[in-house]
Amino acid sequence: MADKPSRALVLYGDGLAQFVNPSHTHIHSLASKGSCGFLSLPNSPPSESEDGRIVREFAQLLDACEAYHNMSGEDTVKVEYEEKSVMQTIAERFMGMRAAIVTSNSSLKSLGGKLGFTMLQLNELLDKTHPLAEPLLDVVAPELLKLLGLQEGKTSETSQFDLVFVHIGAGENTNSQNDIEYVNGLMIIIPAYQFWSLEMKIILVFHCFLPRQSYIMKGGNLRKNIRHHCPMLIAQWQSAVTRKDMAETFSFKAFKEHGGNLTIPADRFLHEVAFKIWKAPKYGA
To answer: 19: domain range?
Structure first.
């Protein structure tokens, strides 16, 4: 365990795992340094739109499915929940956590706002004296670090946020090849100061394992809506804390054969991050 609270930066490459290739050395470098595994998701509803998928899967990462279904107008009686409760903000759920989401997706902005996240866009991080500038790596990266109190190689005792999500990719009007290059570039410009997490989704099928894995269980009962294909790939690293596994590349094959985290439900991800930055007690074993 670290001797003081960390701050977390999460890069979410939505739908980009299939575009990772050997030239993306900085992405592979994170996988080789950290702990790798999978996040399982529920099955997609019939006739789901791409925008709906983006928000629903992100809601899973935030363990905020009820908020998503309320926002989308679905009858929550038909959705599986252990209990219904008043929607809590991120700060109320995790010991005053201050968190931001960087995204250009309007629906995701709406969800994050309801959950108490500060919603930002990449172009809002640019120097206001150059409003027409592109969100260049060497401009955006220092601004992302500044949000977490990291500037010019130094860590401030205070910061604007404890956790920052950066949502890159997905949507009908994006260029996936450019997006994966952007993620790879960010990872070399932004040093891994505190806690890194990189997630991407890939369309491959899990093999069946016996006995049953914990990701298909909840409260001692089987989860009824587990998708055994198209998992999220996740690599994370925290200085002096993360246990390094044997995975050397960011790929389904490497994570399956050599990853240390195996598979957990996507709705447990935020709880893991909150624990790492001292905003939640450890759950489970």
So the answer is: 8-276
